[in-house]
């Protein structure tokens, strides 16, 4: 009788607990994971207004008086900056500081439109991209060679070296042992070095500096076409 009474009390509790257990078993959290990934990394996006705000404009000019530069005209006499700001269309115009004056000197400014600032930003970004491209072009091209390199792989590396050299690039040949690969003998390493140098001479190139490093360790050959 006592056991039957316990079962009668337990059954409703089991029935009410079942949905909660079922809910936990079948619930998924991919949406939460995606949201966490989205906020995990901070992606900074600069708007055009953010870029404009980096210029020394308007109230950022640390001076009471300024001289205004107008294209095709001499500099103006010193005038109050706040009066100049009151005279422009603040919805589309800015007062831009043009120089970094020494202490006690009056800064030179120019009234510019929003479009002029955007064009200035575009020119600056183009110059930065071109500078990075030039710096990248000046960096030597690097090719890695294992001291125990196979004949086919060596032929491929030498072809790549020749293509870079013909384009006027400087090439760095990095010779080293590769982990988990067969180590070359001293004779193989000497033969490889000789074959590489013969190919360098064959394509009309030369080593620009003595080889750095040592045979069977890490060594660098720096090569470029003769006369460049």
From TrEMBL:
The keyword Protein biosynthesis applies. GO terms for cellular component: mitochondrion. Residues 141-210 form the Translation initiation factor 3 C-terminal domain. Pfam families: IF3_C (PF00707). The keyword Protein biosynthesis applies. Keywords: Initiation factor, Protein biosynthesis. GO terms for biological process: mitochondrial translational initiation; ribosome disassembly. GO terms for molecular function: ribosome binding; translation initiation factor activity. Belongs to the IF-3 family. This is Translation initiation factor 3 C-terminal domain-containing protein. It comes from Cladophialophora yegresii CBS 114405. The lineage of its organism: Eukaryota, Fungi, Dikarya, Ascomycota, Pezizomycotina.
